[in-house]
Amino acid sequence: MTGREVYLDYAAATPVDPEVAAAMAPYLAERFWNPSAPYSRAREVRDDVERARGSIARALGARPDCLTFTAGATEANNLAFAAVEGHVVVDAIEHESVLACAATHARRTVRVGTDGLVDPAVVARAIRPETELVSVELANGEIGCVQPVREIARAVAAERARRLEAGERTPIYLHSDASQAAGALSVNVSSLGVDMLTLSAAKLYGPKQVGVLWASEDVRLRPLVYGGGQEGGVRSGTENVAGIVGMARALELAIERRASESAHLTALRERLRSRILGLVPWAHVSGPSNPKRRLPGLLSVSFAGIEARRLVIALEREGVFVGTGSACAASRMRVSHVLEAIGMPRELAEGSLRLTLGRPTTEEDVDHAAEAICRAVRAEATRLRLDDASQAARVAALMGSWR
């Protein structure tokens, strides 16, 4: 491994911001009290938890008593799906935790376009009279597409109004996993029009295994964890005070820095994109062409005929750490379900890297990584006796069959 290290997998994990760590530190030592205990020190810590809850609620434009803290986004998604028993509608590129929850219900999985975007009209047509939940993420963490959640909310609201007028009593809710989006996009629940929203501290330069589910007062949550009745009886267990305080501070910082950070990451992403395409012109970049529909710090790039897992190993030797999809898929070294769902030809999908930039990423990091990636691709192409002309023709043929 070389002396320089460049981390480009921030969609999988972010480091805890120093300000977040500082906010958490007292609750790991001197302020260790259990918030459920009756004495004054414990009540002080309980007040700190509630202040953190209020801070997150303000960021969401919501009531504090509608928030439930969980051990991460996966649990929050499970809690959202546990609120309903009937038919659900999801799209094909949701996070594995959402798809796994949907699999326990009667369901309809709607297709997405080749750019990963969900068509609200397709979602509307998938809703049945017995549908109780629609779940569409705010942004995808593998190819970076920002979904039209507001338009989908209008379709759900129209179905709700139809049911009310018809005297039908089946409720319908809209849930959105905003874990990958909260650092770059507004998560105001009224503006989005959602009934439930998932957030993860781990994607916001906060601690891992801390998440939150916001649910409107119309949603009746059913507990997954029983015990002492914490979190309004919805999620029992001693509160992770340090994690909750850290999550609140992480979200505050994300909102304070959102505009400048998004602009910075967009510029870095485009620099990385242009460097890679300049050195390997037959590389393919996935995701929406409209920049407003793309997360600022994410670049999904594919190299036809090249095995991504070999690239990951070669890049690690050079101190460059990248992903091939979600961390869940990458750990099993399989083709991402997202790339399969957008219809990407297998020759391209198997050679796909997910490059995600973060708060500490610099221009020098981007340039170093781009050169290392292209060296690794060139080395593999040479080993396989692939030249630029044949690769360009190969990609053109694959794109023609795909589009």
From TrEMBL:
Cofactor(s) the record lists: pyridoxal 5'-phosphate
Family in the record: Belongs to the class-V pyridoxal-phosphate-dependent aminotransferase family. NifS/IscS subfamily.
InterPro entries hit by this protein: Aminotrans_V_dom, Cysteine_dSase, PyrdxlP-dep_Trfase, PyrdxlP-dep_Trfase_major, PyrdxlP-dep_Trfase_small
Source organism: Candidatus Olsenella pullistercoris
Signal peptide: none
Catalytic activity field: (sulfur carrier)-H + L-cysteine = (sulfur carrier)-SH + L-alanine
Molecular function GO labels: cysteine desulfurase activity; iron-sulfur cluster binding; metal ion binding
Protein name: Cysteine desulfurase
SUPFAM superfamilies listed in its UniProt record: PLP-dependent transferases
